[in-house]
Amino acid sequence: MLITVSGPPGSGKSTNAVQLADALGLGHVSGGDIFREMAAERDMTPVEFNEFAEEDPQIDRDLDRRLREIAVERDDVVLESRLAGWLAADHADFRFWFDAPLSVRAERIAERESKPVDRARTETERREASERKRYEEYYNIDIEDLSIYDAAYNTARWGPEPFLDVLVATVEAYDSATDEGKAPVEGVVYDF
């Protein structure tokens, strides 16, 4: 089973994707981890690397191509990235979208990265604007279009344990024998 988990920074996608993969006995691949490794290799913060990627489209294309290959070649994995749902639209058995208000996400990021909340909020807004621009330009993807997702959750409304229970129950209720929801999104040109 291939499950994708997508959402903006600080939405809880990494935390929940890891827990979901563990609960279901699946592997876990994080696009964010790969992106942060690429940024560190160039001695940049993720925000700086996002903006650098605006000038060098090959960065996104390399990352997205790698994630797309994982989506096509691997089974029994939770693939987590901002574009995971789009990258695996024609292969995923189930696609989740997680979100939370910016104020909540900024607090989570600030705590995780030991920085002031105002700084986390500003950096997150810059990062999201940069990513939104690139996804539209490179792939004609409107990241705010949630129509491809099977379930979308506001993670600010759930605690970690009850939310994991909801996610597991959602996946278990899913009838993997049906091909509904596996078709590519119409009108989207995939060029990863």
Automatic annotation (TrEMBL):
Gene Ontology BP terms? pyrimidine nucleotide metabolic process
The EC class name is transferase
Enzyme Commission code: 2.7.4.25
InterPro entries (UniProt xref): Cyt_kin_arch, Cytidylate_kinase_dom, P-loop_NTPase
Q: Name one GO cellular component term.
A: cytoplasm
Any idea which GO molecular function terms this record carries? ATP binding; CMP kinase activity; dCMP kinase activity
Q: Which amino acids does the record list as binding ATP?
A: G7, P8, P9, G10, S11, G12, K13, S14, T15
Q: Matching SUPFAM superfamilies, A to Z? A: P-loop containing nucleoside triphosphate hydrolases
Q: Which CDD domains does the record match to this protein?
A: CMPK
Keyword Cytoplasm (UniProt): yes
Sorted keywords for this record are: ATP-binding, Cytoplasm, Kinase, Nucleotide-binding, Transferase
Task: Provide an example Pfam family for this protein.
Answer: Cytidylate_kin2
Catalysed conversion reaction: dCMP + ATP = dCDP + ADP; CMP + ATP = CDP + ADP
Principal location? cytoplasm
- Give the location in the cell: Cytoplasm
The record's family statement is: Belongs to the cytidylate kinase family. Type 2 subfamily.
UniProt-recorded name of the protein: Cytidylate kinase
Organism expressing this protein natively: Halorubrum hochstenium ATCC 700873
